[in-house]
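Could someone model coenzyme A with this protein?
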Amino acid sequence: MTDTYRPKPLNSQTKFDNAEVGAGSFIEPDVTVGFRCHEDCGPAQLGKHCMLRKGTIIYGDVMIGDYFQSCHYAVIRAKVQMGNYCNVMNHSTLEGLIRMGDGVRIMSHVYVSSRTWFGNHVFVGPGVTFLNDRYPGRIESDSSPMGATIEDHVMIGGGATVLPGITIGRQSFIAAGALVNRDVPAKSLVVGVPGCITPLPSKLNKSNAKPLTVQPIDIWHPGGDDASHLEWPEHWLQR
Ligand SMILES: CC(C)(COP(=O)(O)OP(=O)(O)OC[C@H]1O[C@@H](n2cnc3c(N)ncnc32)[C@H](O)[C@@H]1OP(=O)(O)O)[C@@H](O)C(=O)NCCC(=O)NCCS
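Reply:
Sure, complex below.
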């Protein structure tokens, strides 16, 4: 039996070639921060207590707040800006101009196109796709591609697809596999392909639980003392 892998936190503000990462952060081997995608690329800036897992690539010009966590092979390209407590899981890709508030949790294998905007405490399930070009390669357009706007406390279920320029209103709940092809009013449920929009049923009519969107530490590889409260649910142990 081997010891649990516990990376050592950086104990002070650390300067990289083209990045600044705040004190108390964990950075595993094979992580790239501040990747220069062009000559004039500025530095990547990350706040305190971040955790970057092996394989993460963060470009220069990215700005991320405190308590950020990336999992393996997450790719975050230039101009992305995030608040505090954001989380990007395995093999997800964030392209270009993206804005996120606090507590945005992106699960694995998610694609976020440029010009997508997120509010606070948004949960994005695995395999979700956000698109930004309605007629790629077929119709010339003077305007730039436009991604979706996702308001506060939205939950987007696994495998959903969100078409360009759509707004999903506050607290809405998108079912697994749904195709969101028109604007969604606040507090709506969207189910199916194309998505059928109805008011939220009472059981789902609430904000996202903050322990889900603002996780104190990576549950798969706890590396610090503050993970002590993370325990398996009792009924799992009984299996
Ligand atoms: C939409 C959702 C909330 C419905 O849950 P529910 O209220 O318990 O609904 P039920 O399972 O009782 O299903 C009710 C009906 O909707 C259908 N249904 C359920 N989920 C559906 C979905 N995602 N897409 C299409 N139809 C769905 C069921 O087949 C059932 O149809 P029927 O009445 O013809 O038999 C849930 O299925 C869902 O998609 N949750 C998101 C899960 C997810 O993506 N999590 C991400 C983190 S892992």
